[in-house]
Amino acid sequence: MNDVSDPIIEIRHLHTRFGDAVVHDDVNLVVLRGEIFALAGSSGCGKSTLLREIIQLQQPESGSIKVFGCEVQGMRSDQATIMRRRMGVMFERGALFSALTVAENVGMPLREHTNLSSELIDEIAAIKIALVGLPDSAGAKYPAELSGGMRKRAALARAIALDPELLILDEPTAGLDPLSANSLDELVRHLKELLGLTILMITHDIDLLWGVADRVAILGDGHVLGEGTMEELSKSDHPMVRAYFYGPRGRAAWEQTWNQK
Amino acid sequence: MSASTLAPKAEANLEKTHEAAIMRCSGEWTLRAIPPLERHIAQLAWPASGAVIIESTAVTALDSVGAWLIFRTLRQLERMGLNVTIRGLCPEYQALLQLIQTHASGERAPGLLRHSFLNRFGRIVWRHVDEFNGLLAFLGEIVVAMLRALAHPSRIRWRAVLYNLQIAGFNALPIVGLLAFLIGVVVAFQGSVQLVRYGANIFVADLVGLSILREMAPLLTAIIVAGRSGSAYAAQIGTMKVTEEIDALRTIGVSPMELLVLPKMLALLVALPLLTVYADILGVLGGMIVAKTQLNVGFADFLDRFDDAVKVSSFLVGLGKAPVFAAIIVLVGCFQGFRVSGSADSVGHQTTVSVVQAIFLVIVFDALFSVIFSWLKI
Predict the structure, then answer these.
(1) pTM of the model
(2) Is B47's Cβ below 8 Å from some Cβ in A?
(3) Which of A25, A195, B283, B351 is deepest in the core (most CB within 10 A)?
């Protein structure tokens, strides 16, 4: 069952459009178990739409999306609930419930989906909060009292509350200072190794692409412009992919990685 | 594909072998299988002293919840003075257990702090005093802003004033008119029963005229507007505060007071008196219709008596209260809007508070006016 080449997400011939605007025109992607897969591409290329379609917040026009081997479109609601339990989602702006404390936020999926004692739930919430590198005192605080970086960590703690097999991160480092972004990079890698997660993330952060992602797909014009490891992609001759890599920021990140090796 | 593939049946076991000191863990120690195990562990009878060996070769899956449960059990046993060793855990799971161990500093997520009664009482008193101070400071700011606007009338945002005049004034005409009419009908009806008994039918004009013009119309209009517009002010400003639009306005150099509060104040200072006059008219109309149908007092007789019974001062007393009520509604609505902090919950709370406080203050001031007018013998 835990075969390494076992696909967790399989997207075939996906088409999406909003009115006249075509967002996805035959998108094909496979995310394998145990890898960190990153979706990159310029703003408005349909990354977030694709993510929303995978987590069933939006319907594509045609094509198939399989998660854990099951077609998500037209899935019965009880199956969808089971599937949602197996994945954790961290939204770009955290989406923490503002009326609950951080500990309550993290404990909420556990309270909803399991019948553990509330004592054990509080303990698990505390350990998840510690795992993402927040101080103990953060648990009793409300999201509004936290800084942006801490809010992202708290959102991550909530996403991993149910020990999901698949973790979906929308722009995990957007809006963070470089130091916090670096430590979040490490955190993601660390969690993946220890908890055996599969991670799908959307990111613009070229450092994150070089440093963390196992494989990367670049979206543009409604297609997948390139897919593979960063080394493979950096040899691509597609102009938009090259622009992504050989712009000034891309070059700096590339040199940095090169120097480290 | 069936649901069963999505959620494979999971089982975690912990059994005591006949040698009392060895515990054998097996199966999937994951979130899916943990809940019964938690209860099972709590009921286990551990030896009073000596060594316990936890044998975990047969654990086929372990997630962080399972690891926590193992760690928690270990810790509990160690606290009981037992010597615990764990044996046969594969390296990956060992690493996970290690991770949990290094992060397990706190016992549990601290809940909300609980305060003593006196402490809570003090906080509540302080909060109200603080709020009252804030309200006075806000009133001061509005007055300063209004004086500044009077000095430079060109800086008043007339478009926003007219917009607010339409929203808070013109759009409120149907509801205010209908309710004023009904109140007029009710007052006349209640009075008519008594008046017929004394054959004093014509005095229905005094009754309706004085009660509607002096009290009912201004109060009713103010309460409807507080519910309609006061809440909208609080919610609008509160939401703008949450989305940091207020901060954005300040950084652009636009005073939120000038853009958001002043137009509302100017608009309602005009709209509420006008609405009150409108409510006066429809309230009296309601009374006239009841007078004609129930008391056989025709429109002409009614208006004749009305002219004698109700002095202009009564009308002005009612009308004079309207601007004060308007100021209260805008003041409280906007003030509560600015007090919103951070969360969506807070917007709802402050909106409710704004309506309750505005209506409360309107009625308190109405009572004060009654006392003052009776002193002045108006």
Answers:
(1) 0.65
(2) no
(3) B283
